[in-house]
Amino acid sequence: MRYLIAFVVMALFTTSTYSQQVEVGAFAGGANFIGDVGRTNYILPNAPVGGLIAKWNRSARHALRLTLLYGQLSADDTKSSDTRRQQRGYSFENNVAEASLGIEFNFWDYDLTEPLPQSTPYLYTGITYFRADHVLLDTGRNGNLVNEGTNWSFAIPMIMGYKEAVTEHIIGAFEIGARYALTDNLDGSWPEEYLGRREPSKEFGNRNTNDWYVFTGLTFTFTFGRKPCYCF
Fold first, then answer.
1. Residue 222's pLDDT band (boundaries 50, 70, 90)?
2. Does domain 2-224 have CATH number 3.40.50.300?
3. For the chain, which residues make up each domain, given as ranges?
4. pLDDT in tens, 91-118
5. Residue 134 gets which letter from DSSP?
6. Would you say the C-alpha torsion 163, 164, 165, 166 has a positive or negative sign?
7. pTM, to two decimals
8. b/e per residue, 113-127, with b = 16+ CB within 10 A?
């Protein structure tokens, strides 16, 4: 984690720019959970997510980006293709509120001073801090998953998208973003994180893998400020 933080900080200050253009807008889409409960599909949105996004274009190839998102994670063993999960029958819902700061890298030059349309695929990574609930089996492995306590944790976002400036001041994008959470208890599989002690009768799943969640959706941002002049 400390190497990722150092990389983000260095990237922010390697370019000297003037009159950078700022983008502010909204994100809307769907969320899905990847863990020890429910389906095993990597990308299959089944719950809503939305929020705000802001970018500071520091060059034609990268931008500083901030997102504030709120989504729901929902998983149900009965909808899984794994017969063992179907027989087990666990299910849960968990709400996630996250703030993420990092660097968006453009595959191609994305220069808003050039004639439109301007478009490019992009990658984003950085640091995410989120709030969710801890989840716990109420009466052991034959019980039900219930939400208890607050789970504050970090995640590493790995996002790929495609954006296009459709007008001089409106930019649309589609992206798929996986978050590797630094917790294994968004689904209740490792209650030690909440209880502070081992409780084997309430543990299940694979202890060697943390939870993931994926946000898939569209963004629309509006630009303001003077046209950027990228100076190196």
1. very high
2. no
3. 2-224
4. 999 999 999 999 999 999 998 778 888 9
5. E
6. negative
7. 0.88
8. eeeeebbbebebbbb
